[in-house]
Design brief:
The complex is a heterodimer. Chain A is of the alpha/beta class. Chain A has helices at residues 7-10, 60-67, 90-97, 115-126, 131-144, 160-172, 190-207, 218-222, 242-246, 251-258, 274-278, and strands spanning 19-29, 35-45, 49-53, 75-80, 83-84, 100-103, 178-182, 210-214, 227-232, 235-240. Chain A has a single domain, classed as 3-Layer(aba) Sandwich (Rossmann fold), CATH 3.40.50.300. Chain A is globular and about 70 Å long. By secondary structure, chain B is mainly alpha-helical. The longest helix of chain B has 39 residues, at 86-124. Classes of the chains: A alpha/beta, B mainly alpha.
């Protein structure tokens, strides 16, 4: 079922590189002029679970958008499976995306379709498979996430964790080579979190795919990640295995991994002096 | 003075920029139109959503506007002793002006806002981004069927509005005030020409294109926040109403 056709796949390298995605010296500014990345270097290993971590607002989701070709770097290169994303046209980017699956933070299920049709959606759009086969594939994927019995429910009838699992079934229905997770644990109860955590590991191993997980849930992801990157102020400040990160000398890594309120990343947003502001000055209406 | 001129210049460039973006959006829709027409089912679903779901409001308003026309028309025509022309007067005013214009305004308020809010919420809840990631073009899959649904539904709604309004005018003129039914219908039949019907339908189609385009454009490009979706729906109604009235003048001048 893997879609190897299309111009992007046609120009993919014959010998597989050990890295499936490489970001080299990436610079990216948002429209307001704020620098998100300055000289960002990341290499994502094929077949591994890679965690991208960092404090809120460091551009983790922006990084995913760069990898999926939703936005392009101002400078530097983003290479996915041997292809320079910035050089691809829309058709080639779509061909590349067919080899990816993505789990959005809120699931992003189509609200006018039931669970079955949500999972079947990519198959109906990209293949001409007979209805019987579509049914088999969808039920298999729903079974993998434990929601075969919820096939007829609508997204608004699902809990947060169930919605996330349906979105995961949809993300794997085209048998992608890369599976991207954007904050997969946000807002989940401990049971749902454990379920999603185990699913990420088991899907990665069973399907032989590469998983990229953007999260700031250090404790959870450290149980399953093969390699991790911590991004701060537009750069990678630390990378390695979970154990390596734990022993890292950088104060910012120490603050992030141990969840300390204050440190290089300040607790307080920049503000005038506390006493000065309390005792006079500007009144907020 | 310079500050005022600068502000005017800025407003003009912003306006032209928005018109340019709308035209580019429309051209993109036109480019994918041939392939979009092959998928009939989503278009029929949208004709139902925008057209059939607007029927109650269109028919209710049509009935009362027809009844008001009957009242005002009867009052005016009896001053000249020519109340038998009530059918002609109401039919021509409805076919040429009131039918398409009022239907377009109601369409913008009911179906246009629903389209804009739906697309805006799809943007806010990442459904459109999810389609992009699944290599599905949201313009083709989501926007085009909604646009075509509106374009097809509008002339149908205009026709239904006019028929119901004529019934309303007849109810007041013939049933309440006792205008001769034979005169009412025969005068109408002899005075109304095919060009009058054509004018109404052409206006309905043009207003359908304009209102549907504005609704899908505003919704699709809404900021992904509650405030952004709210603004998109408000802009849909306001811009559709203004554009409808401007287009009405242009079309009337061209077709007279």
């Amino acid at each position: 079922m893997k879609n190897q056709s299309g111009p992007a796949a046609a120009s993919a390298p014959a010998v597989q590189s050990p890295s499936i995605a490489v970001l080299r010296d990436v610079h990216f500014d948002v429209d307001s002029g704020k620098t998100v990345f300055s000289a960002l270097d990341i290499e994502i290993r094929r077949g591994a679970i890679t965690a991208i971590m960092g404090p809120s607002g460091t551009g983790k989701t922006t990084l995913l958008k760069l990898i999926t070709g939703q936005i392009f770097a101002d400078r530097g290169q983003v290479i996915v499976d041997g292809l320079d994303v910035a050089r691809l046209n829309r058709k080639q980017i779509f061909a590349l995306r067919r080899r990816m699956g993505m789990l959005f933070q809120n699931g992003a299920l189509l609200t006018d379709l039931d669970v079955f049709e949500n999972v079947a959606f990519p198959l109906r759009e990209h293949t001409r498979l007979p209805e019987r086969l579509i049914r088999t594939i969808v039920l298999t994927k729903l079974h993998a996430v434990g929601l075969r019995g919820a096939a007829e429910l609508y997204p608004q009838q699902l809990s947060g964790g169930m919605g996330r699992r349906v979105a995961l079934a949809r993300a794997i229905v085209m048998d992608p080579e890369i599976l991207i997770y954007d904050e997969p644990f946000a807002g989940l109860d401990p049971i749902s979190m454990g379920v999603v955590l185990r699913l990420i590991r088991s899907l990665n191993d069973a399907l032989g795919i590469t998983s990229i997980v953007v999260t700031h849930d250090v404790r959870e992801i450290s149980q399953i990640a093969d390699q991790s990157f911590i991004i701060s102020e537009g750069k990678v400040v630390a990378s390695g295995t979970t154990a390596e990160l734990r022993d890292h000398p950088s104060p910012i890594v120490h603050q992030f991994v141990d969840g300390l309120a204050d440190g290089p990343v300040p607790f307080h947003y920049p503000a005038p002096g506390y006493h000065e502001q309390l005792l006079g000055g500007k009144v907020f209406a | 003075m310079i500050a005022v001129l600068r502000e005017l210049w800025q407003s003009l460039t912003t306006f032209l920029e928005r018109v340019g973006l709308l035209v580019r959006f429309a051209l993109r829709l036109m480019a994918i139109l041939p392939s979009g027409l092959l998928r009939v089912r989503p278009i029929i679903e949208q004709v139902y959503n925008t057209g059939a779901m607007s029927l109650v409001i269109i028919m209710t308003c049509g009935l009362f506007i027809g009844m008001v026309l009957g009242l005002q028309g009867y009052d005016l025509l009896t001053r000249f002793g020519s109340e038998e022309y009530l059918g002609t007067a109401t039919a021509i005013s409805l076919l040429r002006e009131l039918g398409p214009v009022v239907t377009a305004l109601l369409f913008a308020g009911r179906a246009g806002t629903a389209l804009a809010a739906e697309l805006g919420l799809m943007r806010a809840t990442d459904q459109i981004a999810a389609m992009e990631i699944m290599a599905v073009d949201p313009m083709r899959r989501v926007v085009l069927p909604r646009f075509l649904g509106g374009v097809i539904a509008m002339p149908l709604l205009v026709s239904i509005f006019i028929v119901v309004a004529l019934f309303g005018a007849q109810l007041v003129g013939v049933e309440f005030f006792g205008v001769d039914a034979g005169s009412y219908w025969s005068q109408m039949r002899s005075a109304v020409e095919l060009s009058d019907i054509r004018e109404g339908l052409v206006k309905g189609l043009v207003f359908g294109v304009a209102c549907s385009l504005i609704a899908v454009y505003e919704g699709y490009n809404a900021k992904p926040t509650a405030d952004g979706v709210g603004r998109a729906t408000t802009r849909t109604v306001v811009i559709s109403a203004v554009v409808t009235l401007i287009l009405d003048y242009i079309l009337t001048a061209l077709m007279l």
